[in-house]
Design goal:
- The structure is a single chain.
- The protein has 128 residues and is α+β, with helices and mostly antiparallel strands.
- It folds into 2 domains: 6-69, Arc Repressor Mutant, subunit A (Orthogonal Bundle), CATH 1.10.10; 76-127, Ferric-uptake regulator, C-terminal dimerisarion domain (Dna Ligase, domain 1).
- Helices cover 42% and strands 19% of the residues.
- The chain contains 5 helices and 5 strands.
- Strands 4-3-5 form a 3-stranded mixed sheet, with no helix packed on it. A two-stranded antiparallel ribbon has the order 1-2.
- The protein is flat.
- The model has no long low-confidence stretch (mean pLDDT 92).
- It binds zinc ion (2 copies).
- One zinc ion (ZN) binds next to loops.
Length: 128
């Protein structure tokens, strides 16, 4: 268990209240409204602790900034290559995917699955 921290609680409750998968910079700007003297370094440190502790998910995208997710229940992501937004795709294929892999003799603890392409909003704009 992590020691209680007001700053970490604020970061966690902000992340649980949105589904936009913000970057550390966005989280910093939002949490600063409630805790004006918080620093970006503190935000980074707490995000690291929270993700190591399994309370949030860190989504890494190579060279661009990580995005953070307060929703740790099984779901997948759709990354739009036009607007760069990350959307939740709520479907749980855990059992099916795991049994396919177990049949190959592996013992999976988890998996990551991500879709890339153009989101609904951007599809609409392309048609217009
Ligand atoms: Zn889009
Ligand atoms: Zn998500």
């Amino acid at each position: 268990m992590l020691k209680k921290s007001m700053q970490r609680d604020e970061i966690l409750s902000y992340l649980k209240s949105v589904n936009t998968h913000p970057t550390a910079e966005t989280i910093y700007m939002e949490v600063k409204k409630a805790i004006p003297d918080i620093s970006l370094a503190t935000v980074y440190r707490n995000l690291k602790l929270l993700s190591e502790n399994g309370e949030i998910l860190e989504l890494t995208y190579g060279s661009s900034s990580s995005r953070f997710d307060g929703n740790t229940s099984p779901h997948y992501h759709f990354v739009c290559e036009k607007c760069k937004n990350v959307y939740d795709i709520m479907m749980d294929l855990t059992d099916e995917l795991h049994s396919m892999v177990t049949r190959e003799g592996y013992l999976p603890y988890g998996h990551r699955l991500e879709f890339f392409g153009v989101c609904k909003d951007c599809c609409q704009k392309l048609k217009a």
